[in-house]
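In response to the reviewer comment on reproducibility (Comment 2.3), we provide here a single inverse folding case reported in full, input and output, so that an independent group could reproduce the run without further information from us. The structure tokens appear first.
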């Protein structure tokens, strides 16, 4: 089965960058339908550049991006690619365009030429999926940050993409808003099977990802499951990132001689491990 997304020897250099510096450097990656892929890295590591390369906002300097077998280098296929990859950015205010929530969610499908009856159905379904169906007639600007971002996600879902790409979607939110968005994204991936690429620098947001790619200087410095990545605490810190606090605590306990597992991401799991000690 062909992967949904293929990156082949992908490189990108911004105008003015030196010969040695690449924003994205020789990335090879395959993403299958239904996967939850997390991309993490400190500011300037190349992760947001990758997001723009995925749907053709930027075109590769070298290499290729293929989505559903179509190349972003082919101008005739870009429109289809952008329909397949729904983008959600940091600031939800930049994606909200209408005065009423349901009209905002309908904006994308309307621009795709979807019939009115189908748009109503999609808006209803999308708002239910993000648990904002009680806010259909509300003004978006009066919502909390987390609610705004969930409406922005609903607007993308209503266009029925094959993949949801979220670029630092919680960067401007408080802890409650962050939790709302993470829960929504995980539900869409887990229950709806929506392929998800989640870009962040908050490591505690991606403990349920299928794979994590850690970016450094435009390259993939680490790749693996959450358990494989978070077990490398010292390496993660060298890359100017932090593991989830519970994982850090478990790591320190293990370093002090307490025999517990390394793949601990939650308080409940840590309590279980400690209680099982003899």
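Designed residues, in position order:
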């Amino acid at each position: 089965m062909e992967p949904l997304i293929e990156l082949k020897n992908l490189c990108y250099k911004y105008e003015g960058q030196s010969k040695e510096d690449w924003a994205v450097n020789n990335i090879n990656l395959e993403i299958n339908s239904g996967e939850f892929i997390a991309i993490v890295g400190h500011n300037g590591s190349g992760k947001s550049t990758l997001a723009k390369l995925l749907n053709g906002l930027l075109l590769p300097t070298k290499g290729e991006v293929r989505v559903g077998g179509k190349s972003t280098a082919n101008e005739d296929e870009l429109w289809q690619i952008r329909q397949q990859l729904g983008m959600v950015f940091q600031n939800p205010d930049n994606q909200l365009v209408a005065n009423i929530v349901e009209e905002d969610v309908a904006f994308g499908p309307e621009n795709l030429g979807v019939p009115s009856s189908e748009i109503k159905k999609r808006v209803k379904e999308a708002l239910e999926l993000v648990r904002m169906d009680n806010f259909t007639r509300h003004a978006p600007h009066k919502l909390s940050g987390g609610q705004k971002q969930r409406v922005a996600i609903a607007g993308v879902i209503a266009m029925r993409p094959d993949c949801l790409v979220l670029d630092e979607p919680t960067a401007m939110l408080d802890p409650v808003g962050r939790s709302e968005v993470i829960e929504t994204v995980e539900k869409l991936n887990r229950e709806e099977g929506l392929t998800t690429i989640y870009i962040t620098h908050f490591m505690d947001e991606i403990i349920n990802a299928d794979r994590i790619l850690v970016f450094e200087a435009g390259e993939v410095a680490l790749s693996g499951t959450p358990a494989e990545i978070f077990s490398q605490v010292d390496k993660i810190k060298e890359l100017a990132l932090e593991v989830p606090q519970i994982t850090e605590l478990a790591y320190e306990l293990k370093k002090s001689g307490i025999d517990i597992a390394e793949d601990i991401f939650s308080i409940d799991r840590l309590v279980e491990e400690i209680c099982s000690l003899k």
